[in-house]
Design goal:
By secondary structure, this protein is an alpha/beta fold. It has ten helices and ten strands. Strands 1, 2, 3, 4, 5, 6, 7, 8, 9 and 10 form a ten-stranded mixed beta sheet that branches.
Length: 300
């Protein structure tokens, strides 16, 4: 499966048709070689994902979205990471289990779906019994997600925009809403409504994240409204205020600031006003760079 899908790559909506098996790189900035920037216990996900022990986060380099404001741009631009084999990825999964991880958290995995499917199946043969989390930017193809049916237990996608204009400006994908909305429907079809264990840890389900951007409050409200009207309590919504302007964002001066408490409070109040109950919100000063881990190849 791996070679055939990567020789004419259409894994993501960019539909590059690049032969990634010969060393060429697609929009994601990666060839067929697995590149991982960090593999470690991560405590900064939603409480039902991280818990006290942490989520076993594997940060893949490259990204099919490429937002101008990316908080993880060091890896999303393919600027760092170590090339590894599928066999090493299997070992990493098992090592994270040995460290007490609550789950295996695949971060920006979309362009490596074929290799990930193989690795998870091999790891399960060797005793991996943790939930698999697919932590992505939301710009997904349903056909690719179907390859993950029975592989992924928890989907953790972003839902960045409703507006095609904003999506084009900041992520070069005017069709973002079209693909993200279809993706969440497929994710929910696969894993069903949320299931938690006795400790409040999610075992199956969909948590949709929305990062509030400066100047985009109305679109944020449109995102929350769409998710609630379409999926109700079948999913959880995570409303995040941790946007941090990083060096290079000066080209977009409107994004060169953090979200104000008043803006975030207005969005949360809006969610409450339309009866959103299955949600995570952030309190206090969370827009800090400590949310961005060191991509130093730890655990790789």
């Amino acid at each position: 499966m791996e070679n055939s899908l990567l020789q004419d790559c259409t894994l993501c909506p960019r539909n590059c048709h690049i032969d990634r098996t010969n060393g060429r790189k697609g929009y994601c900035r990666e060839s067929e070689e697995l590149v991982v920037a960090r593999a470690a216990l991560h405590l900064w996900e939603e409480p039902c994902i991280s818990g006290e022990a942490g989520s076993g986060a594997v940060f893949f380099s490259g990204c099919p979205v490429g937002c101008v404001y990316c908080q993880n741009k060091k890896i999303s631009r393919g600027l760092t990471g170590k090339k590894i084999t599928i066999e090493r990825l299997v070992e990493i999964f098992l090592e994270l289990k040995g460290q007490g991880a609550n789950n295996i958290n695949l971060v920006t995995p979309s362009h490596y779906v074929p290799q990930i499917v193989t690795a998870v199946l091999l790891a399960r043969e060797q005793g991996l019994d943790l939930p698999i989390v697919y932590n992505c930017g939301g710009y997904e193809k349903v056909e690719t997600l179907k390859l993950l049916d029975g592989i992924v237990d928890i989907y953790l996608p972003d839902f960045k925009y409703v507006s095609a204009e904003i999506a084009k400006k900041y992520s070069n994908c005017a069709d973002y809403f079209e693909h993200a909305s279809a993706a969440v429907k497929e994710m929910l079809r696969q894993v069903g409504e949320p299931v938690f264990d006795e400790h409040g840890m999610m075992k199956k389900g969909v948590v949709v994240r929305h990062l509030t951007l400066p100047g985009c409050l109305q679109d944020s409200k449109d995102v929350i409204r769409y998710l609630h009207q379409t999926f109700g309590n079948s999913i959880y919504v995570s409303i995040m205020n941790q946007y941090t302007p990083l060096p290079g964002i000066e080209k977009y001066p409107e994004l060169n600031r953090k979200i104000t408490p008043a803006e975030y409070d207005e969005l949360v109040d809006f969610a409450v006003s339309i009866d959103v109950t299955h949600a995570f919100v952030q309190d206090g000063e969370t827009a800090i760079e400590s949310f961005i881990p060191e991509f130093d190849e730890s655990g790789v």
